[in-house]
Amino acid sequence: MKIHEYQGKKILKSYGIPIQDGFVTDNNEDIESTIDRVAEEYNCSQFIVKAQIHAGGRGKGGGVKFCPDKSSAIESANNILGMNLVTPQTGEAGQKVRKIYITKAFDISHEYYIAITLDRSKNQDVIMASTEGGMDIEKVAEETPEKIIKVWVDPIEGLHDDQIKTLADGLGFRDDLFSQVSDLFKKLYKCYIQKDTTMLEINPLVKTEDNKVVALDSKFNFDGNAMFRHPDVNDMEDPFEVDETELEAGKFNLNYIKLDGNVGCMVNGAGLAMATMDIIKLSGGEPANFLDVGGAASVDTVKNGFKIILKDSNVKAILINIFGGIVRCDRVAKGVVQAVQELNLDVPVVVRLEGTNAIEAKEILENSEVKIIPATTMQDAADKVVDAALN
Amino acid sequence: MSILVNKDTKVVVQGITGSEGTFHSEQMIEYGTNIVAGVTPGKGGDTVLDNIPVYNSVKEARDNHNVNASIIFVPPRFAAGAMIESIEAGIELIICISEGIPIRDMVKVKHMLENSNSRLIGPNCPGIITVDECKLGIMPGFICKKGNVGVISKSGTLTYEAIDQLVKNGLGQTTALGIGGDPIIGTDMIAALELFENDPETDGIVMIGEIGGQMENEAAQWAKDNVTKPIVGFIAGQTAPPGRRMGHAGAIVSGGDETAEAKNKILAECGISVARSVAEIGNKMKKSLTLKA
């Protein structure tokens, strides 16, 4: 789960980490008063206006603007709020900006990069820091890996002082700045652990002209499985950042992800669902979605699955691929027939059922009044559905 | 022979009185698994199914029945506690079926495992089955046939698909092992490969992975130097868009060599026979075994 920059900064602030602070608005009429509040609260006359969307690369898309005075801040804020922001991470469709964050601006002497995440293979947390902040860090990692300092932390033992020293020294901090940044690393790691974060990134962390260390941005990824421990964080989720159909699928306990193709698919199990998408592609089609209906493929799940898939008007044919283990295939077959009848489907449906009672299931499908194309193997099913989508 | 479980495995089911626990215990017993006890805190003294005694703790169950394996069906927020209880009771083999466990909890469990004599399989996995002897999990036992192929997989239903294809190609299995799709798991692919390499009854290995993480790559590198038996590999998720989570917490592509294409390349370079399509798993294994013979 992800949150917006301003929400992340609120969390950082609660841990005593210095941030570039400001106020948020989602309303054009409140822009001027919000700017006045920022000016008063943070004693500044220059501002940054920042679009609040989850995707990165906001600056490149024109979603972050430095404003040397109030009038230019009003202008930028009005331009950004409501705009459709296209960044390298949003895809071509872009993301509508529904909230802007207006912060104080100050003079920066250097930008750094800091991130904490879990190194799965070592079962340890890894803290990464670089003097090359503000830039495309993946490019830095690829071209000049020596410029990224990495420290592995045993999560049971916690972060040691000598590790903090390695990081602070590596970034070239001395004296008062050394203690500022050491304190920041301690607090940041504590926040990372306590909030069940899977990734915490500050890019950039800056050194100001008056020698203060400040977080200019924040990016949090949380462990969705741990959100029961953090109802406050869970409430921060922005439904506008989630695809509408994906959100609706979630309500039905279906795991759906929309793709760009025209062959819809409905499968039980994530691995088999991915393998089904893959074989559709290998057989000359383009998958329209990922849809995992989970263990129990009942009439209702199949019906809801159809409804979700058909919200996408590109879909020209649907493949149902169920490996019935504990679930009996004849029951799934009856469910499919009933769902097709009740929904009055007019796109061709190819059904492949394997496992318990697969033969009985095939008979039910063949003898039904509705137009269903039964298939045997995964290859057979993929060929038939691609063929149906083309014709 | 087989790996990890056989007809002598004595099992305790943690969460046996829950609906999932009871249902799958019944299925496992039907398959021939020797379930000797169950655990549900607060329900000690009860019996379930065909007179299986329920205890308040794993330790009590172990003391009374000499169990050497446990299988866990408890809600995700209690699953780490259940695993730790089994580790502390010295259970040799722990299988965690529960899914949705916080990563931080697994970090703790993994740390405890490293300082213990227990082995964990899972979490978020279908379990393990040694054909015609012992099923410790939720997979449909009837699809398996006794034979000489070992199966290692990150995914549930995809494992069933692979088993089904093997059977249709006239091949049976020694043991099929679902290692789970989470970022942190107890038994990884290298450990599973090592077990099958050392099992005299296993002649070939099917290894099913997914996009995301480095495990398949590390396993392939390891296999190159350490596995003498033919391996057929398959990676699901060639068409998955980068940055999206596809159902399993582990199946997310974030770096260059975490894609299906990159993994396939590494697997092939390490001498693994790569099935580009899921439909090829069965016949690729058959070919590999024929070539070897």
List keywords for this structure.
heterodimer; A: 391 residues; alpha+beta; 6-stranded antiparallel sheet; 4-stranded antiparallel sheet; 18 strands; elongated; B: 293 residues; alpha/beta; 7-stranded mixed sheet; 14 strands; 34% helix; 22% strand
How many distinct helices of chain B?
9
Give me the count of strands of chain A.
18
Largest protein interface? A-B, 48 and 58 residues
Record the strand order, biggest sheet of chain B.
3-4-2-1-5-6-7
- Outline the biggest β-sheet of chain B: 7 strands, mixed
Detail the poorly predicted runs of chain B.
Answer: none
Strand content of chain A: 25-35%
Mean model confidence by pLDDT of chain B: 93
Which value, in Å, is the CA radius of gyration of chain B?
A: 19 Å
Q: Summarize the amount of helix of chain A as a percent range.
A: 25-40%
Low-confidence spans of chain A: pLDDT under 50, at least 5 residues? none
Classification by helices and strands of chain A: alpha+beta
Coarse morphology of chain A:
elongated
The helix count of chain A comes to 13
Order of helices and strands of chain B: EHEEEHEHEHEEEEHEHEHEHEH
Oligomer: heterodimer
Q: Helix fraction of chain B?
A: 25-40%
Pairing-aware structural class of the strands and helices of chain B?
Answer: alpha/beta
Straight-line N-to-C gap of chain B = 20 Å
Rounded Rg of chain A: 26 Å
Proportion of strand residues of chain B = 15-25%
